[in-house]
Amino acid sequence: MATLYRKYRPQNFSEVVGQNHIKLTLEQEIKTGKIAQAYLFCGPRAVGKTTLARIFAKAINCAKKKVNSAEPCNKCLSCEEITAGRALDIIEIDAASHTGVDNVRENIIASARVAPSRSKYKVFVIDEVHMLSISAFNALLKVIEEPPAYVIFILCTTEVHKVPTTIISRCQRFDFKRISVSDIVKKLNYIIKAEQIIVAKSILEEIARYAEGHMRDAESLLGQIVAIGGREISREEADLVIPRSDLNEVLNLLDLLIKKDAGSAIRLINKLVDDGVDLKNFLNDFIEILRKIMLGKLSPQLVEKLAMELGENIELKINQLSQNVALEQILFFLEKFIRIRGEIKVNFIQQLPIEL
Ligand SMILES: [Zn+2]
What we know:
Blueprint: H1 4-7, H2 20-32, E1 38-42, H3 49-61, H4 77-84, E2 90-94, H5 101-113, E3 122-127, H6 134-145, E4 151-157, H7 165-168, E5 172-175, H8 181-195, H9 201-211, H10 215-228, H11 235-241, H12 247-258, H13 262-274, H14 279-298, H15 300-305, H16 312-323, H17 327-343, H18 347-355
Helix pairs in contact: 2-3, 3-4, 5-6, 8-9, 9-10, 10-11, 12-13, 12-14, 12-16, 14-17, 17-18
This protein binds zinc ion.
């Protein structure tokens, strides 16, 4: 079960969650046959760069691709070989462990001179390309400047600022984004259905939040939870793997403060302390949610842009709370709690009544 990531790796464009702008452009290029010879996929780790590179390589080499579709058939010999990772014409290189110029000469330049053995295109996927040495980049640049017509380069990097501009300017560049909580939940949902396991949506949302936009992390967390649980995953089992998140308690506290119910607020905080909740983390979450409500009141589009969504359950509660509180009150809380965060020691609890 630890390899959910491999087992459910997307095999065509429609299975990829997130990165819609990139998918659309690539699909359009495939449909119209206007593909570039060098691509640069930049962005955080584990958000689908090499996955999309493989699907792209598969689609342009597919022997049975439908007209007007960009999707690979996943059935022809070429598709099957690429899926299995044994296609001779798809060359994946991890630049992190092959940084030198000799590697570029032997594995890339020499190989690029030879026409593909079976496929239409020879595709070089160079992962972590920013790790190449200067001389390796210079050698690579020469072949990217004048590549044989059958060669396609897909350079992937998490640190585009380390890639020479001479290389960047030769590539069609795509900037990958972290994957949203709702998109991650969608994928996790698909996996648990396929595995016939029951996991509460709130747990899936917690996994997605904790993964912070990295799909592979989310899938690996789910794998760990499923490995210790049975057919139905309980809250307690999930708690063993996901560091406890108390967004619900954060919202409860905020609700009490809005209602000016000091007694219950203090009882809640004492209970959290007894439960071993880290007050500093709790306070950070609290401030984060206040910030979200504040921005939501100022400009809802801004919240969407910042991709601050926290999953459906939490979002619903935040919306309800937000309607019962004025912007001034939120600003007041923000100011107080940011100050408390700076001072937090034992005086947190004593200080709370003063805020009220
Ligand atoms: Zn095919």
